Amino acid sequence: MSSYFEKRVIVTGAGGMLGRSTAHRLLEDGYHCVLVGRDEQALRRTVELAKGGSDRAALCVGDIRSSHDRKRICSVAAADGRLFGVVNNAAITRLKPLLAASVQDWRDVVETNLEASFFLAQEALGYMREAGGGRIVNVGSIYGVTALNNKLFDGLLPIETEGDRGPVRETAYSVSKAGLVQLTKDLAVAVAPWGVTVNIVSPGHVQAPVYDDGSGRYVPHRTNLAGPDPVTAKYRQGKTDAEVRAKLAEQYPLGRLGKVGDVTAAIRFLLSEEAAYITGANLPVDGGFTAW
């Protein structure tokens, strides 16, 4: 069994806000991290911004939807030590009027958020089984357990859209995250005899900029969109970020939106020895939002 400081953890979506914060937290704790994403520049930026442990970060540019890339990612993670953990954080969404969503939109989201998460876990499990244990932490969403309420967003996600195409939704995203909850339970039972735990964290709305491009654009319930979304921009109606966030925060029992550190703390815990007897669990990190 490798020592704590030799443990390798794969973090997907490591160029985005949550993946970057997770990587930084784990590197500071002494883990070796394999940072995965399609944007090499964003991954390098993650390393540059690390306050400690950047020498224990390895970049692996690739697409987790690719079988070849998944094999390569796990091989890199296991090449110089124990592949201990996988944080399935990479995700995309498509915000569109309900009746305008296409088959391709659906396939892109489900393939990235759910299908690729399973097959990356499957690839990693071969190494974990051989090593005698490991951790898989999936990153879900409150929208994997509850439906999006357009009315909470002060017009940013309108109920009526041009051409009578229905409300702006992200149905494929919600379905993919709900599937990830069940995948977590099923995998947890299947791999328990191998000493591997599988859990999921389900963040609520995280108060942080989505885009690091100086635009100031903000979609309050997403933390990892691929880029600026023209649907929400169209319906902004002059509302400031602070106004939208304040209205949304009122819906939380704790009276505030989440911080990215709230989520990374939960991920860190589920990877730790203190969580060794927890598996198949869905940990909401949502300030009580889903408890109403």
From TrEMBL:
Pfam families: adh_short, adh_short_C2
Gene3D superfamilies: NAD(P)-binding Rossmann-like Domain
Alphabetized InterPro entries for the sequence: NAD(P)-bd_dom_sf, SDR_fam
Highest taxon of source: Bacteria
PANTHER family noted in UniProt: OXIDOREDUCTASE, SHORT-CHAIN DEHYDROGENASES/REDUCTASES FAMILY MEMBER
Family the entry assigns: Belongs to the short-chain dehydrogenases/reductases (SDR) family.
Name assigned to this protein: SDR family oxidoreductase
